[in-house]
Amino acid sequence: MPTFSTSGSKVLEISLFKLTALRAGAFPAIWLFVLTSNAADLHEMRLSYDRWGALNATQSPINNPVFLTRANFLSFRTVFSSLVDELYVHDIGATLPLGLRHTAGFSWMTLAADSSLASFGSATDEERYEYEAGLFMFSYGMRPWGSLSFGFNLNIVREKLLGEKEHIGFGLDPGVGLELPTHPLLGRHSLAVTAQNAVAPTLSTGEPFPRVARLSLLSIFWDEAIESDIELAVENPFQIIGEPRSRERERWKLSGRLGYRSPKNINVHILAGIGESGFSHVGIAGGLRLPTYIYDKPRNLTLEYQHSRISKKNVGGPSIHLGVEVGNHRLTAEVLMQKAFDAYNDGLYWDALLIFGRVTAEYPNFVNNDAAAYYMAECQLNLGMYKAASFRFSRIPKHFSHSNHSAGAVLGLMTIHYREGRHDSVSTVYRRFNKMVASDSLKNHAHYLMSQAHIKRGKYSAAAKLLKKIARNHPDYLFAQHSLVIADMNTGRSDAARRRLLECIRREPHSNTERALINRCRVMLGYWYYEHRDKVHNWQTKATDALSNVPRYGGYFEDALLGLAWIRLKTGRWEECLAAAVKLAESKQPVVAAEGLLLMGYGQFVHRRYDQAIAILKKAESLITKERIPTHPNETRCGFCDELDSLGIAVDHLARKRRRPSVRRDLAEAGERYGLLKRKISACRSQAYKTDRNFVSARRIPTLRNDIHYVLASAAYRLQQGNERAKPKLNRQQKRIDKKIEGLENKIKNLESLLRYAP
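The chain above was modelled as a monomer; its predicted structure follows.
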């Protein structure tokens, strides 16, 4: 430690100290200058004050400026420390996050000596020393990539002693840190190293401050309930410029801290350390962290007290710290947008909706608010909140006239009109969309939506013209080809329909929806071969190949099994047909079960077991008599829709408000309501899917009824005819028996007469 002499042979020293910020935020490092006439006492007093550095090292840049990157708010702090009765240290500081990767810190510290220093050296009561010391520090930290951090402290030292000319010195502390991978059991750890006084400030004597290397390991366990840090400080480890070591200072020091934060945010810490000369200090600290929320951002007001005692010395003192967080969170609008997009891409539309709404509420001048509003409407669309989504989509072209999302918003309106069955409105919005500048992807999807509206209204030729415009690499291409199959079949282009079905089943699916559509195309292709068996060579093999590739887990397995059963019936493979028919008869769908029973009854009819055929066919007749052709699901509105629309409007209003406590409560209640509605939504959608799946097959009900009645009547006729043919045989047998009986009776009569006249 540098020393200098004054008149009266008094030896005074300036000692370099660190002061650490509290856990409420990361605060810049500060240099503490203490005036004393005894180097040994100075060293012990430095330890009593330096414990703040160990107490809050997890978020403080004191031991390493890279810890500034942990700050999320603009934060202020003030510290008061009394080392002894005559010396008081006052410190104020602030930390300012800059974007996502940068943080700046500012600090100012002063030292006050209020009374005589005679008790510290050979000065008399009449001798008083005038000393002024202060330090301004600028600190900076950055996280360039991953878990690696860099930072530095720029120190400006000001001192004035005994009326001499004011002296100013400059210093620099560089540092680097690395966050180790987090483990659920082993906790989170940060390793850091700093070179204090790498560029050392120089005192009026011309001597620089000593250089110190600090290695820190900071650890957090049990969801931040347990904190610990271990720090090794080595003075001038490489003997830079041959600086001699003071005898009063220890070459190395190892200190540690173990702290606990209770669920009620009460902190308790135990501090200890050892040095070259043995056990150096012990201390205890406690405090309160009072969390509060402003606009859904956590803030902290922190008050802590510490008292440390130096081993073997009657030196120590209390310290009090007060810290507060203000301003916006480091999570800027860009970060919120990224979080919202992550939730949106993961299908978490409720979470994404609230985050997009928060962006528009908390950052009204954000340059990408048009995207936030658009994707907010997309989330509402995916959640089934059509009324709120329609309102949000319609406002985007008005409020963001030059936005790239205007065409997408109009396309969103088309989607809502189509899903609610308003096909005339789809045509109106489509004409409006065609006047806008839009990407090819949006144009292809608009063509697809308009074509579906045409198909619903039976305009197959108009639909085919639009479907042929959809590019091969567009996500709607496979669905467009399927729709073209329907259009071709309804316009008499059966060969074109077969070619498109073959193209569909050869494509590689990229989603469960595409996989289900390909299975449906396999069923349609198998049925096409069956219906055109007179015109197709080797139709049995082709139809069987298409239907056999439909997996059991898909929703079209029973349709494929039904087709296979009829093919086996036509080709005379009775045992295989009967096995498939038995499985079909167990179906929960009455139409499919009736077809299975029809096949079973027909098989019995072919084998001339007419009585068994009649029993099976009557069971099929009872099933099909109760069935009616269902209404298509897109033509009806589920009962939950009105309630969901009301909830959607309320959530839209809440999501665009700042997150005050009342707003958070209302959003939580809305989430619970949506959770209850979700079960109704799932049940309704499941029923709609079943109805949609049964819609085509249910149209076979009239034909199926006729087939059952025909086979039933045929079996009954054959059974009756067989009974009529059996009657003549019975009559002839009876006559022969009667004749035999009559002959026997005559013989008996003759015998009786002979006996009567016997002697």
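The longest strand covers residues 278-294.
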